[in-house]
Each structure stands twice: as C-alpha cells, then as structure tokens.
C-alpha cells in the first residue's frame, strides 16, 4: 500500500491547525526519471553529473561491468530500492534541491531527507511546517531507503555517499525520532495463518479448478514448508524465470528412512541463499491438509512440462500462467474476508507454520532448519504464543499443592 501524505493547515480564525490528508504525494515528472517499474529505477534514473571512470575504456570490460552491476541485486530488493529512490526525489522536489546536488548526494542532504521522511509533526508545529507536505515512513524503512540511495550511487558509477561515521550520525538522529514518535504510530505485527484458517480456506476451494488448485498448493506448501510467499509466486506474469523460480522439475517426491512419503522442493534462488546455492523445502504428509496431496492434485489438474512454473494454472484460453503474488493474496483475502476471518499477508503462512510447529513442541532446531533460518531469527515470526501459552505454563503451582 502506498504511503499517504498530509499537510498541516492553519485557519484564518486562529483556531488550532488541522491535518489534511493528501493521499500518496505525486513525484514531479523529469526526463531524468522515466516512468519505469520500481525494479528498473536503480539503472534507468540518472543524474546530470558525469561519474568518475571505473574501468579501462574497453567495450568488453565495460560490458562485463554493466551486466555484473545489474545482476548484483535480486528483483525483490530492486523493487524496494525503487520505492526508496522515489521517496528521495520526492523530498528533493518538495525542498527544491537542484538536480546537480542529487547525484552525488551530500551527507547534509541525506541527513535532511531522513529527518523529513520519518517526521510526523503534530498540529502544534504547524507554524514551523508551513506548506511542507509529509509522507512519513518508519525508521526501519528510512534505513532501507538509505541503502537504496547508496545502491543507486554505485549503480550509476559513483562512490557510496556515506562513510560509516556519517551513517552513525544519521542513525543517532533516527533513533531520537523513533523515541519521539513511538506513540504516534506503530505497525501491528503481521498476523499468522492458523491451522483453522488453512482448513477454512481449503473448504472454500474447488480443487478441480486450475486456479483454485494452484492457490491451495501454494497455501499448504507455504504453511507446512515455512515458505516465503514470494518463493511460490512471481511479481508479474512476465517475471517468471526458471533460473530463480520453482519449476515442476524442482519438485521431487520420495520416501524417507521410515518409509513415509515426502516432497523436496529445490529452490534455485532465495533471499538468504548465496549465488548459485540451492535451498531445500521439505514437505511431509499432513492428513486432510496435506501439501503432498495438494501438489499431486495440481499436477493432475494443471499438467505441464518440467520447466514450467511449479505453482501455475491454465486460464480459459488454455494459456499456462505462473501465479502472481498480489493476485493470490487478493484471492485468499477475499475468501478470508467473506468468512469473517480477516486479512493475511505474504509472510503470514510462514509465520503461522512456525508458530504451529513450536506450539506442538517441535524442536526449535528442526523449525530453524525447515525454515532455512541461519540463526534464531525465526523467533521474530512467532505471533501466536498467547494462543498456546497455557499448554506450557498454566497451573504449574499445582505441582506444589498451591
């Protein structure tokens, strides 16, 4: 969801200022910033200054430098960085920063950008804010946007704009703003998909329908396999790439040492994987909500070649289509809303699966390995402890006759 802007308006009668909502703030058009998708802005958006030479002037070397630079970041990272660049140029437009000062950007400019980006002034500050609009983001987002501006500089041939010392100075200021504004806004934790929600979703689906069969295969695999939703879907129909996305050939079925069925999904690329590293997602039988059955049903309803997307469907014209992330989430949320359950997010299945496993006393190390976490970072995903706390801690005093 795009950020929403506002401006503080003072009345001629001298009454207290009021906050006027503006919706997403528009970016001023510029030939330096063509209207391209967010994941293309890092390389398509230019500056007016000429960067220093970074290689010898040989076309072969320059070609290697260009393709290496473009391959350095994942698509999901490029999308986030594109949003950061937009926010930076929005700030520069509002404060009339000339193009010559945007690339390369000074410490003073980037420090000021972060102050504006995070600040959410109150009506009492209207005399200071004047006609300046605001579109506040979190401190965490501001740090990511600084990373985006750094990447933009490097992609355009400039050195990184901030030293570690300068970045620390900005972090000091942002920490103070976070304390000031912690009571003004907070982002609620992403809700988990529960086992009952998963069952309700399945009961609402027609598993003989190609689209709905694909939805169920994604939902059950994401929950039981602790998958990021983006690992089972694509950003858009044209973004599918067998080098980075799961194909039918990446789904392998077998039996373990106890003779029980399992599936292994070989993920060609992942957020936490090194270049060329394949990560494995493991799925086992799960009674009526079984991901193995869901995958086999999908293969039956939507037959496809080995290099076709694993999670795909066929439209009424017979076209084979990978499942788009936003389409899948909108469909699932439509079903959940219709049942009065609420709204879910991309990570809600991964969060829900981890929460469920831990509530059933599955060894945390097993959960860590299944979720492909390199540390105890999975703990930040546990959102449903209050639902199972009594199983672990209730009535312990009774052991002592109290």
TrEMBL record:
<dbReference type="GO" id="GO:0003677">
    <property type="term" value="F:DNA binding"/>
</dbReference>
<dbReference type="InterPro" id="IPR013762">
    <property type="entry name" value="Integrase-like_cat_sf"/>
</dbReference>
<dbReference type="GO" id="GO:0015074">
    <property type="term" value="P:DNA integration"/>
</dbReference>
<dbReference type="InterPro" id="IPR011010">
    <property type="entry name" value="DNA_brk_join_enz"/>
</dbReference>
<dbReference type="InterPro" id="IPR010998">
    <property type="entry name" value="Integrase_recombinase_N"/>
</dbReference>
<keyword id="KW-0233">DNA recombination</keyword>
<dbReference type="GO" id="GO:0006310">
    <property type="term" value="P:DNA recombination"/>
</dbReference>
<protein>
    <recommendedName>
        <fullName>DNA breaking-rejoining enzyme</fullName>
    </recommendedName>
</protein>
<feature type="region of interest" description="Disordered">
    <location>
        <begin position="1"/>
        <end position="32"/>
    </location>
</feature>
<dbReference type="InterPro" id="IPR052925">
    <property type="entry name" value="Phage_Integrase-like_Recomb"/>
</dbReference>
<keyword id="KW-0238">DNA-binding</keyword>
